[in-house]
Design a protein that fits this description.
This protein is of the alpha/beta class and 283 residues long. The chain has one domain: Rossmann fold (3-Layer(aba) Sandwich), CATH 3.40.50. Helices cover 37% and strands 19% of the residues. The strands form two sheets. Strands 7-6-3-8-9-11-10 form a seven-stranded mixed β-sheet, sandwiched between helices. Helix 5 links the parallel strand 8 and strand 9. Helix 1 packs across helix 11. The longest helix has 18 residues.
């Protein structure tokens, strides 16, 4: 799969955020899925749209190294069969400017819309950039939701879910929710309420008699429950990819697919299969 083999790039002098070493696993999974999705859906839909709600600068540098990698926007712009439209949202002007420069250089032919600002605040602008579907224009979107912590807003996904759209979501549960367990369960924080789109999760957690070590899978299951309420297929946790830290092998986050179609999960299962004990194929 060509999309997974060419992540490394040279330093081009533009602003490049640092990421942990575990991010390479995420990028390789995304590269595999983007390639399968864009190729498999190429002749089945009139337009395929790629959306990145936390787009960043397009490139990343592995912390403590001189290794530069394509981040999600650049990966999506360099797959064999480009999407018909790209929508990149980024809150930082500096990162968005770097992304624009890189996108123009690596895929000048791509149709790209840039949204400056917070994706939750700018959701209507993002929504309006999605091509209108009709009986003669079938549109399928793929949206990456990759926040820095468990601070995503479920209402944003709810708004986008009114069109034909699949989501790949990074659930930063180990990185955030586990570390702030007392604040979220016993405190006044509404962060998880907003991420899950409900306030009942806390009662279900307390009534379940679960251990603190169960909090991570519990929240992942709760998010699946919320997505199911939007018509997405509910899948077991083993259909998610649990990414761990390189140093201490600690669970950091789940990378999960949400789709209304079993076909998407067939692609996703291929990605999970290739990601298991296949690191030698990527080096």
């Amino acid at each position: 799969m060509a999309g997974s083999e060419n992540l490394r790039v040279d330093d081009d002098g533009l602003i490049t955020p640092e990421v942990g070493g575990w991010a390479e696993t995420k990028y390789r999974l995304l590269a595999l899925y983007y390639e399968l999705f864009s190729t498999g859906m190429k002749n089945k839909w009139d337009q395929r749209v790629y959306m990145d709600l936390y787009a960043g600068a397009g490139y990343s540098r592995i912390q403590g190294t001189s290794r530069f990698l394509k981040a999600s926007p650049a990966i999506a712009l360099t797959i064999p069969h480009l999407f018909d439209k790209y929508i990149f949202c980024e809150e930082s002007k500096d990162l968005l400017d770097a992304l624009k420069t890189r996108a123009q250089r690596i895929a000048p032919e791509a149709n790209v819309a840039y949204i400056a600002g917070n994706c939750d605040a700018e959701i209507e602008r993002i929504y309006k950039e999605i091509p209108k579907a009709s009986s003669t224009n079938r549109v399928l979107s793929l949206c990456l939701v990759d926040p820095f912590d468990f601070g995503l807003k479920f209402d944003t996904l709810r708004r986008l879910s009114t069109v034909f759209i699949d989501f790949v979501v990074l659930l930063a549960i180990g990185m955030d929710a586990n570390r702030n367990y007392e604040l979220y369960v016993e405190g006044n924080s509404t962060k998880i309420d907003a991420a899950l789109g409900n306030t009942e999760w806390r009662e279900r957690w307390k009534a379940g008699g679960l251990k603190r070590s169960d909090f991570r899978p519990f929240l992942a299951a709760e998010f699946c429950r919320s997505m199911e309420s939007l018509g997405y297929l509910r899948k077991p946790l083993d259909r998610m990819k649990l990414v761990r830290s390189l140093e201490k092998n600690l669970p950091l986050y789940y990378l999960a697919l949400f789709s209304r179609s079993e076909t998407a999960f067939n692609f996703w299962d291929d990605v999970l299969k290739y990601s298991t004990d296949q690191q030698q194929l990527w080096d």
